[in-house]
Amino acid sequence: MAYETITAAPLTPRIGAVISGIDLTRPLSDIQVRDLKQALADHQVIFFRDQRLDPASLKRVGQHFGPLQAHALKGLPDHPEVRKLHADETSKHVAGEEWHSDMTCAKVPPMGSILYMHTLPPLGGDTVFASMYAAYDALSDRMKTYLEGLTATHDGKLAFGRFDPTGTFPVAVHPVIRTHPVTGRKVIFVNRGFTSHINELSKPESEAILQFLYRHCEDNYFQVRFRWEPHSVAFWDNRCTQHLAIWDYYPQVRSGFRVQVEDTAVTGEAA
């Protein structure tokens, strides 16, 4: 996989690469953006080291890849598209502590998310990413045929209701098996964080199939585990990955910022 302006070092055979040869704190050229888009398509999640960003510069990076979404939870006062992620000794929970794809409760979920971490605990705080290409490919042909054409409801209340029990959150319907709008590859598109049920099945059938798919998608063979260092960045394609933030560092501090990039490759219902 040759790029003109960057180098990509794969971390596993299926997913993840560390990108070098680029400074995200400086404006990116069209060729650099093109290389990064290709690297994301090739590796599904790409990582960067030693990038000292702030909310404004993180926004600038994200805007190279599309419009930024305002998060369902409150963004920063001066940067509503930027969400602060912070955990310390007062935390009762952390963002992303179960397997999920970001905001699949939206009619058009984000194309991707870019997370910058400036403060890390001495040990722990890794993020694990799983390839939904690999998960789909590993299904039997009969299971692929069975799942094709089914749809699932994704409800924001499942993820965010505990923070605001009286709030109103988005609800959307997406195919259980989705075709990636850029690569054309098929993925499994249900997740523990947001999916409530499969619409065409009875409740017991839906629960059984979803639990099977959740366990299948979380198989270690589909994963890469990223060990954060201060001023690292992760950029993942939300359409073909799931991720899990491991909260094993309490009461230590872990802090950073995230933006979500809108998916301009599809219109209306996710394809």
Verbal overview:
This protein is of the alpha+beta class and 271 residues long. It has a single domain, classed as 4-Layer Sandwich (Double-stranded beta-helix). Helices cover 21% and strands 27% of the residues. The protein has helices spanning 30-43, 55-63, 132-137, 141-147, 156-160, 203-217; strands at 7-10, 17-20, 45-48, 83-87, 112-119, 127-131, 151-155, 171-175, 177-179, 186-188, 195-198, 223-226, 232-237, 241-245, 254-261. Strands 1-2-3-13-5-15-4 form a 7-stranded mixed beta sheet, covered by helices on one side. It has a 3-stranded antiparallel beta sheet with strand order 12-6-14. It is globular, with a radius of gyration of 18 Å. It starts with 6 loop residues before the first strand and ends in a 10-residue tail after the last strand.
